[in-house]
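re: that chain from earlier
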Amino acid sequence: MDFSVVLITALAALAITARTRHLWPDAPGSFWLRVLGGLGGLGLALTGAVLLRLDWPAPTGLALAVMGSALALLAAWGADLLWAARKSWLLAAATGVLVGGLGAWWWQAHAVLWVWITLAALASAQATWLLGSPAALSRLAWVRRHLRAWMVLLVLAVLVRIPVPLWPEGFAIISTTQIVLISLAALLWGWGRVGPRIFLLAGLAFTFGLGIELMGSMTGLPFGLYSYDGAPPPSVLGVPLLVPLGWFAMVLSAHLLAGGRPWLTGLLVVAWDLGLEAIMPAKGFWTWQDPNPVWYGAPIQNYLSWFAVGFVISWMYARLGPGLLEETSFGWAYRLEALFLPVGLALLGFWPAAIVCGLAMNTLAWWGFLTRSQGAVNERRVC
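^ sequence. v structure.
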């Protein structure tokens, strides 16, 4: 593929948008337009990922995956502003497509290049218009004022998951990198809430999680009969590093969504494990030998034990770190997992787990958020 055609398309859209964007005024903000636009872009990206998994011509799937993600970000930034000024940037995009099409015809490029040409023109025109819009720039300024280092790490934890459909053999290193980034984000976020005490909480959760996993893999208690034999590195005493890190960071995020209610935290981590038990044994992280499986090789006692361990760690967080609940934005770590884990399961063919895990995680996460918010409202009324 001659990417010079794509570059010419982008430059044409940039130049024309810069000349015409002042002809149409900004529009008042609309949250739902941004949400719907972002979902549309993500739909394109997901379609591209599916096409790549189905072994369609790689350039088509890659174009949809990459440019769909870019369009989703642009829509989340200013879909409402773009809609009000659609004549401006659509004219620029159409001209960019025309210029790129002439280039494709001249070089006798493959027809697949038209997908890149069209999407590149749309993304370039939209980006240029937004960069010239005072309303859009004010939103960027708001982001800069409120952006924190832990948020950047959380975004990176999402981005590292993108290569999974394209590089399935790299699943182990991608998964470990992801949970390390989430754990670092948890530490930075926690430092702002409870100071150095977050390291004590992290150490206790990590050690407790590691200890319970060592006992479980050696004795079958409390989770059932399984082993970590052949699990990919890095590991701690034979347990993959991502497992105890997950007990710290993901339970912390679930604890925040649950409003500090240990029983709800336990349910949230069980919902998460409904997806993990499908994909992690398939990727060699652990192996089930239990004679009484109920879900992808795991017995019912596994899920009861996940509930109990999540309950205990959440109880510890509530007792030793009450300040954690003063601001619960790190709950987004669990919400993002509730979005991307089911999608990943579906792309890898684990449809039952994708549906059940997705419904359970998202339902419990939002129910916990809503009931916590209502509890806060009632508390203020009493005061």
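The radius of gyration is 24 Å.
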